[in-house]
Specification:
The complex is a heterodimer of chains A (about 300) and B (about 260). Chain A is mainly alpha-helical. Helix content of chain A is about 75%, strand content about 0%. Classes of the chains: A mainly alpha (about 300), B alpha/beta (about 260).
Chain lengths: ~300, ~260
Amino acid sequence: MKASSGKTIPVLTVIAIIVAIWYACVVWMNAPFEYDRAERAKTEPPGFSQLISKTMAQERPVLPAPHQVFTEIYKTTVLKKITSKRSLVYHAWITLSATLLGFIIGTALGVALAVGIVHNRAMDKSVMPWVITSQTIPILAIAPMIIVVLNAAGISGLLPKALISTYLSFFPVVVGMVKGLRSPDQAQLDLMHTYSASTAQSFWKLRWPSSMPYLFTSLKIAVAISLVGAIVGEMPTGAVAGLGARLLAGSYYGQTIQIWSALFMAAALAAVLVMIVGFAHSYVLRRMGEKPEGVAA
Amino acid sequence: MTETVVSAKDLSLTFETNDGPVHALSEVNLDVEQGDFVSFIGPSGCGKTTFLRVIADLEKPTGGTISVNGMSPEDARLARAYGYVFQAASLLPWRTIEKNIAVPLEIMGYTKADQQARIERVLNLVDLSNFGKKYPWQLSGGMQQRASIARALAFDADLLLMDEPFGALDEIVRDHLNEQLLQLWDTTNKTICFVTHSIPEAVYLSTKIVVMSPRPGRVTDVIDSTLPKERPLDIRETPEFLAIAARVRDGLRAGHSYEG
């Protein structure tokens, strides 16, 4: 509690500054539309105070005001039934389910590859370059192909989107876990050798626990990037539900408020997911007897 | 009648490096008898640690022969013939002291009850009975090293290999641990091979001191200590002690290894 109270004021200050800048931009960016409207209606251009209230209440503003976005979020979450197609919670859940499935598959795949790379010389030499190459291909290019190919194979719905999340999220896990599984020092490995420990025994008693801090650091990145993958998976494929679909539909119809509220929902979702992984991280390390100050041993 | 625990004949080990071959060990001949406390002393690069690692099957010799308990080092390792103590305590930070000592016991398949009994016994031996439930970071460096010695004693190995175990500790703690180690050696009747670069430590602890010199790593002198088995710390001021220390120092100097 002591640490968080020390952070509250700086965080709130930054938020206040961002909101202030945002409101200023709302007036500045939405003003041309109001001047145009006044000219077309052949009326006097609005005065300053009128301009402010008008720019903040447009139906399709260039930049919606914060309160418009949050009113929209409130309307589409609390005031809508979760099962409704217009509920943001419904769309968030669609995206979240793909995110989580992709995250789980990606983590499993990443860990499996890392174990192989650490224990097998041939895999060490052959797999790692491909893992890195896979991330140089733009996900926007590969996402529609995955969806189309899997559709042709009769697989549709959740799994294709989840696989795009997997494609992004396995990477940090492989890299982190290879490093983590190799983190025991030579003396510790020698010690295992003097006990004539089997590879499996060294793995479970030494390598795996040593890699935990690395795993959770990777998982934080992986879960956030999984969400990006799921949203990207919804965009180029004509998906009708999900945060990606909301973003796309919003941009088709100039519904900027809808875009921004979907954006905020995605950001909140990512924050919550990363926080959950963070809690799991500190819980596991505390169970492992970590020094309370959080100093890595 | 004593048995030979370690026997090396013309033992050589050459590392091939990019700068050419490095002769870490050259024609080493040495016998270690059951119950001996043998210290290996010499400057860096003299092969004292390498010799210990060859005994432990952590390095393979490139020439000569070596037997441990009458077997090859590999068979001796598989037969769990020795316990190894490194300079760093190398305790696993996520395990309590008890659980750290349990690591070799778990690997070697001792029963739970047997593990518990052994843990208690060795914690007693190193005077850490009340610290079994602590994590390594809650212990001082000296205590951590004692815990790592306890770990090496927990299974029934008659040979203890120690590679500068007190090298990173301050002198006061080191004196204390040296005294304790001698008691431990006396009560357990183990054979100990001990690498150090401290002359007083080597003379104080050993029944036999092996003086080595580098490039190539070889044995220049083997000194059988005439000190009694009972050794209070102030034995280090006796003329007998100083005479042995002087011989060790001469041996080191004869190795003309001080070009630095």
